[in-house]
Design goal:
The protein is an alpha+beta fold and 156 residues long. The protein is built from 3 helices and 8 strands. The protein has an 8-stranded antiparallel sheet. The longest helix has 23 residues. It is globular, with a radius of gyration of 15 Å.
């Protein structure tokens, strides 16, 4: 499995960023980060009512619960942005997107023999405890994206 760097927290900008390399085509990675049946194989059980800006749904994590989700932007197969109300410091996620929502954007770039995937999550200044949430999400992106690499590289 490809070994990738950990997430980086920018406390001044209230962002978390992680860039990874995956030995898989952009098309395969795109499917894995945009199609609910593929997202559900590595992230959480995903449900969306479409593949367009404004589409709504959720991601359900075992042991955590349902997190409301919406697509903010999509530019296939290069970029997709999701808004979610996943304020870990609050404990339970709200039923619907709320004022504490953050946005995470996946950007895909073809590289020799694979794909460079960057996730940037922004908006932690709107959360109940920015520092705690950035730390939790930085760890979460390591765990979740490592599962994506394992899945797409056949080690899962």
């Amino acid at each position: 499995m490809t070994d990738n760097e950990a997430s980086v927290i920018d406390e001044a900008a209230y962002t978390v960023r992680r860039t990874i390399r995956i030995d898989a085509s952009v098309d395969r990675v795109w499917q894995a980060v945009t199609e609910p049946e593929h997202i559900s194989r590595w992230f959480g059980r995903a449900e969306l009512d479409g593949a367009r800006p404004g589409a709504r749904g959720s991601i359900t994590f075992e042991g955590y619960g349902r997190v409301p989700l919406a697509i903010d932007a999509i530019d296939a197969p290069r970029l997709v942005s999701y808004r979610w109300s996943n304020d870990d410091a609050l404990g339970d996620a709200p039923e619907e997107l709320d004022e504490h929502a953050t946005v995470f954007t996946f950007t895909l770039e073809e590289v020799d023999g694979g794909t460079r995937l960057t996730v940037v999550e922004t908006g932690f200044d709107r959360t109940s405890d920015p520092s705690t949430n950035m730390g939790e999400h930085a760890e979460g992106w390591v765990t979740e994206l490592d599962k994506l690499v394992a899945l797409l590289e056949g080690d899962a």
